[in-house]
């Protein structure tokens, strides 16, 4: 588990957005199945449309079943902070306590944090310093796995090596892009009895919180995000 001390003074309540109603997210219907599959498989690939609730809910599903600590990587710093704030707020905890994040030199987590969000770059730095001890989590979630970079590819290689040695760790890969069969193939040789499975979240036909609209600047200025 990551052991750096927290320097948290950040508030989880600083987002200008109203709290979304997570209970209506498409992923909620598959809550039990997702946890069941993650426990059953060594590697689970979760594919679901953007906004269905992957980043904010899957770490919480695992924590609610006492699977912890959980590491979740995001390709960009902005996403790390945004999702960490959103999850801390949903769990009604101070950012840096149960839920934390680490980007660059900014650490907002403690040794007792149960869900920690990081960039792939931060994780690689930690692996350089602490070797595979940096991967001592019950579950590792690599989010937006289709977004390739040198860092994310290196993380995949290191995590695969770690999987071969550590039989208890569960790996979850998430993406909004269906074309992730190559990742299943990549992990296909981790062991004869090891399962690698793809789980698709069915699209929702309902209006969700995450709707795309074209707005022009004068209209954007008049939006009250607190309403
Ligand atoms: N920072 C935020 N503040 C408030 N609501 C948010 C925020 N980010 C996302 N949401 C809303 O929360 C819901 C779940 O978002 P989440 O990020 O978990 O979805 P996702 O499946 O990971 O999407 P994506 O594939 O785009 O990463 C979405 O409907 C979205 O509109
Ligand atoms: Mg996401």
From TrEMBL:
Pfam families: DEAD. Keywords: ATP-binding, Helicase, Hydrolase, Nucleotide-binding. It catalyses: ATP + H2O = ADP + phosphate + H(+). CDD domains: DEXHc_RHA-like. It comes from the Eukaryota. Residues 35-196 form the Helicase ATP-binding domain. It is an enzyme of class 3 (hydrolase). Its EC number is 3.6.4.13. The keyword Nucleotide-binding applies. One of its GO terms (molecular function) is ATP binding. InterPro entries: DEAD/DEAH_box_helicase_dom (IPR011545), Helicase_ATP-bd (IPR014001), P-loop_NTPase (IPR027417). This is RNA helicase. It comes from Punica granatum (Pomegranate).
